[in-house]
Amino acid sequence: MKTIHPQHDSIRRLFSIFLSLFFLSFSFFTYGQETYLQNREIPLKIKQYTKTYFPNNNIAYVKKDIDHGILEYKVQLKLNDTELSFNKNLKPIKIESHKELPRKVISYKIWNYIQKHYPRQKVVEWELKNNYQEVGLNNHVDLLFNLKGDFIKKKL
Q: CA geometry: angle at 54 spanning 52 and 58, to 5°?
């Protein structure tokens, strides 16, 4: 019969606890965490942005979301099912609505392109990606533009 030295048993337990904590913390960051912010916790830049571009549409709630280590603020406005997302630097990265987005949330160059080529359509979605912008129209057409606002292609 093999005897286990008490010191080895303690080391095994410590190692087992360490591994458990490691995997627990890993899953915590991988699956993300969400926190609903109180009004006093909402960053001022987010309040200013929504008041400037959506003056008649108050904030319903703001959710601070950390997913895969990436911080994002998700803002739900009270009217038109309007949602906005902001990155960790509090810059808007996505806006969606059932109604037309305010003209000034999209670059002038992109807006002009849409008015020229899709004059009867409304912009209902805008998203900033790493190296391009995506604009969704109310006819379910998605258009891609580079970061300078030059048209790239119609998304299929």
A: 110
0.85 exceeded by the pTM?
Answer: no
Answer whether 53's CB lies under 8 Å from 105's CB.
Answer: yes
Q: Give the chain's domains with CATH numbers.
A: 30-91 (3.10.450), 100-156 (3.40.1420.30)
C-alpha dihedral over 114, 115, 118, 120, to 10 degrees?
140
User: CB-side exposure of 137: number of CA atoms within 13 Å?
Assistant: 18
Q: In what order do the strands lie in the sheet with 123-128?
A: 33-36, 59-67, 70-77, 83-86, 92-96, 123-128, 133-137, 142-145, 151-155
Q: How far apart are CA 45 and CA 24, in angstroms?
A: 34
What are residue 95's phi and psi, to 5 degrees?
-140, 130
Examine the pLDDT at 96 and tell me if it is beyond 70. yes
Question: In whole numbers, what is the pLDDT of the chain averaged over residues?
Answer: 88
What is the DSSP secondary-structure string of 24-83? HHHHHHHH-EEEEPPGGGS-HHHHHHHHHH-TTS-EEEEEEEEETTEEEEEEEESSTT-E
